[in-house]
Specification:
binds uridine-5'-diphosphate-glucuronic acid, globular, six-stranded parallel β-sheet, alpha/beta, 19 helices
């Protein structure tokens, strides 16, 4: 099939490359010239394992190209995926739909014939219906445009795998004559042959599935972090507790990783936009618990700063602190709303001399927080430091040898912000180990 993918950020660039990998002919579209130039040259403008290979292979095979020209996109195909960003609106919890609407406004007047636009962006419930009205008002007399919603569930760090072999495909279609399911079945033929469930719903349900999934994941993380707060006071161990409750298959161990909490470009803004939309619908109460989910999450960062201060005798002023990790999670260079970078920044603003090391996130972090010191390796970051904070659980940090690391530092004191270290091994090497939600 021929298709365009409009928006070439995380979601769009991955979707475009992976659709080509499935054998489709794909044109990626973005208004950002530099992004398009880089993608045309086979370079992924962010870190995503496996994606550069998929991109290069499909450009070379002639199945994948990129453009900034909407007229070319309108000519190229009758199927379009919309994957632009829906960031948090400045000064509000609501989602900013400017980019989503701009795609419809730019594309639809250029279309002729019959087209389907599959929305993939995370949007407030009701958006697809509004976009259909907008499209109807912009389409020429002989042009027919259908808007369907096909939310995306990919995780950064596993984006290729999640796109090629998703665990489910959700498709929201409008009530009146819809061709979306038939077309989607062709787009996703490979996954459907492998028995991937396809759930066809109305537009509103599809929009809500996406935000509900992210709200549930955020709630699960904040639940265990709330229990971590109790463990810290009452003297429990949140890791053992998570293992124990996670064995109940109704609960499950995934997303019960207690520590610095969630960040990134999705979970934080999505729970806020969900609350904002509930308010607009007159149902604030239904989602007011998400305020607490957000608050618990943000408190973990403060708690880490407090533990660090206490570890250094009450103040970090003038003290040398190393923060391992600044990406919001491992296998990503994304620092948007990163708990790790937030902690590094707070400690620096409290007067500490903070050195950061992250395998991939430092270029992005430097743009957000240029005043931190960035080391070129973990060993260099550890050199002569008085306190180490493990803030993002990269495998490289999990694999650190406590004895060798101990030779580098000025004081063997580490705070495990992600509960991933082998505490006994670190203690045996002479380290004082602290962690969130545990009394070690
Ligand atoms: C999330 C969802 O998992 C995807 O399904 C969704 O498609 C995506 O948002 C999106 O809306 O685009 P992602 O933001 O890539 O994906 O990251 P996650 O793997 O969900 O992790 C989010 C945050 O939670 C990270 O900061 C991570 O460190 C934290 N986390 C995760 C915990 O603190 N504890 C856990 O047990 C798990």
């Amino acid at each position: 099939m021929r298709m365009t993918v409009i928006g070439t950020g995380y979601l769009g660039a991955t979707h475009a490359a992976c659709m080509a990998e499935l054998g489709h002919e794909v044109l990626g579209v973005d208004v950002d010239e530099s992004k398009i130039k880089s993608l045309q040259a086979g370079q992924v403008p962010f870190f995503e394992p496996g994606l550069p290979e998929v991109l290069e292979r499909n450009i070379a095979a002639g199945r994948l190209d990129f453009t900034t020209d909407y007229a070319q996109a309108a000519q190229f195909a009758n199927v379009h995926f919309l994957g632009v960003g829906t960031p948090q609106r400045h000064g509000s919890f609501a989602a900013d739909l400017t980019y989503v609407r701009a795609v419809i406004e730019d594309l639809v007047p250029k279309l002729t014939g019959s087209h389907i636009i599959f929305g993939k962006s995370t949007v407030p419930v009701g958006t697809a219906r509004d976009l259909q009205e907008l499209a109807n008002s912009l389409a020429g007399p002989d042009t027919h445009v259908e808007i369907a919603w096909n939310p995306e569930f990919l995780r950064e760090g596993y984006a290729v795998q999640d796109t090629i072999t998703p665990d489910r495909i959700v498709l929201g279609v409008r009530e009146e004559a819809s061709r979306a399911e038939e077309v989607a079945r062709e787009v996703y033929a490979q996954a459907l042959e492998a028995s991937t469930p396809l759930l066809v719903t109305d537009l509103q349900t599809a929009e809500l599935v996406k935000v509900s999934a992210n709200a549930f994941l955020a709630t699960k993380i904040s639940f265990i972090n709330a229990v971590a707060e109790i463990c810290e006071i009452a003297g429990g161990d949140v890791v053992a507790l998570a293992d124990a409750i996670g064995l109940d298959e109704r609960i499950g161990r995934k997303f019960l990783g207690a520590g610095l909490g969630f960040g990134g470009g999705c979970l934080p803004k999505d729970i806020r936009a969900f609350m904002a939309r509930a308010g607009e619908l007159g149902a604030d109460q239904a989602l007011s618990f998400l305020r607490e989910v957000d608050a618990i999450n943000m408190r973990r960062r403060d708690r880490m700063v407090d533990v660090a201060k206490r570890a250094l005798g009450g103040s970090v002023l003038g003290r040398r602190v190393t923060v391992l990790g600044c990406a919001f999670k491992p296998n990503s260079d994304d620092v948007r709303d990163s708990p790790a970078l937030s902690v590094a920044g707070s400690l620096s603003l409290a007067g500490a001399a903070v050195t950061v090391y992250d395998p991939e996130g430092m270029d992005n972090a430097r743009r957000v927080f240029p005043t931190l010191a960035y080391a070129t390796s973990a060993s260099k970051a550890l050199q002569d430091t008085e306190l180490v904070i493990l803030a993002t659980e990269w495998q490289e940090f999990r694999d650190l040898d406590p004895a060798a690391a101990g030779e580098l530092v000025a004081a063997r004191h580490i705070i495990d912000g992600r509960n991933v270290l082998d505490v006994a091994a670190w203690q045996a090497a002479g380290w004082t180990v602290e962690a969130l939600g545990r009394n070690l």
